[in-house]
Amino acid sequence: MSPGLRRGFLAVVALVAIVWPALLSDFSRSLATDGLIFGLIVLSLVLLTGFVGQTSFCQYSFAAVGAFTVGSLVAGHHWSFWLAMPLGVTAAAVVGALVAIPALRLTGLFLTILTVAVALFFDRFVLAPGTWDSYSGGLSPWVVGRPAFLGVNLDTSYRFYLFVLGAFALCSLLVWNFRRGKTGRVLRAIRDAEIAASTLGINLTAWKLAAFATSAGLAGLAGSLLAVSVGSVSTGGYDFIHSLGVAAVATVMGVSSVASAAAGGLFLVYGPEILRRLHVSPQWFNLVTGALLIVQLIVTPDGMVTDVQHKLQHLLQHRAARRPARAGEVDLAVAETPAGARGEAAATRPVRTGGAQ
């Protein structure tokens, strides 16, 4: 896709994302807002799994660090949200780096077991009532109100949606620039061949730590925003099952594409709502996601969104290749005409003289 066409497409998407929610109800706007927040968690997996090739089933644990840091500081210690949020993101990034230390030399099943153990450690110990109630809130959830941004109160659903949309767009642009620049090339080299990347002088330890920390920081930002969106922070919303669900949806959509973040987040929110409209219990959503995961692994191993992007790019390249061919058909026909035939045609043309007839 050409840069001009890409910019035009993104402009249309941005216009729809800004205007369309203004026509929806408050409930629908809140769903769209939560979809963008969940999209940030999917985006954290795009960075970690799609770019570096590292598996993680504890992204909601990182989100919990951001959410409970904001909840405990804002509701428990009366901090400003704008001071608590950066601290929550930083705390999540630090936890991600600590998880990355034992994961540096692990791949495949062993890395999966490690991240599952981290998620269960948060579920059963850190966030369990009675372990650290000053942080988790114990049996009572933290209540967090919506702040003001640049003098504008974010108490309405549309204003808060626009704020979350801006945060999601900024993070997506950041990850996209990582992919297109030198950072993306280094991360892909580590993903494809670690030994070769190490031979080229790439510091695998530093880059993996940075990738884990950045991915965890994105998830922590999502947790911080989710605390404000819901208005409360409780342990039930950040368990291991949520991490499994977001990992499955990210795989279905395609972890190698930044666009999968928005698609995956909206699917996580609107999927149960669609089932509810069809008079089907939302509890079947995990089963539907599992079935889609099986179909995706068989039909489109790269992911649904990634597959659509590849087909669209192939179609545009095919049309672009045909267009100059049509313009050059006349020249090609002249070039393929035998020289003798061109001479005979020139000889049979009437010759006009300047004298009177």
Description:
By secondary structure, the chain is mainly alpha-helical. It has one domain: ABC transporter involved in vitamin B12 uptake, BtuC (Orthogonal Bundle), CATH 1.10.3470. It has helices at about 5-20, 25-50, 60-75, 80-105, 110-125, 135, 155-180, 180-190, 195-200, 205-230, 240-255, 260-275, 285-300, 305-325, 330-335, 340-345; strands spanning about 140-145, 150, 150-155, 230-235. The strands form 2 sheets. Strands 1-4 form a two-stranded antiparallel ribbon. It has a two-stranded antiparallel sheet with strand order 2-3. Strand 2 and strand 3 form a beta hairpin. The radius of gyration is 27 Å and the shape is globular.
Give me the secondary-structure topology.
Blueprint: H1 3-19, H2 26-52, H3 59-77, H4 81-103, H5 108-126, H6 133-136, E1 142-143, E2 148-149, E3 152-153, H7 157-180, H8 182-192, H9 194-199, H10 204-230, E4 232-233, H11 240-253, H12 259-277, H13 285-299, H14 304-327, H15 329-336, H16 339-347
Antiparallel strand pairs: 1-4, 2-3
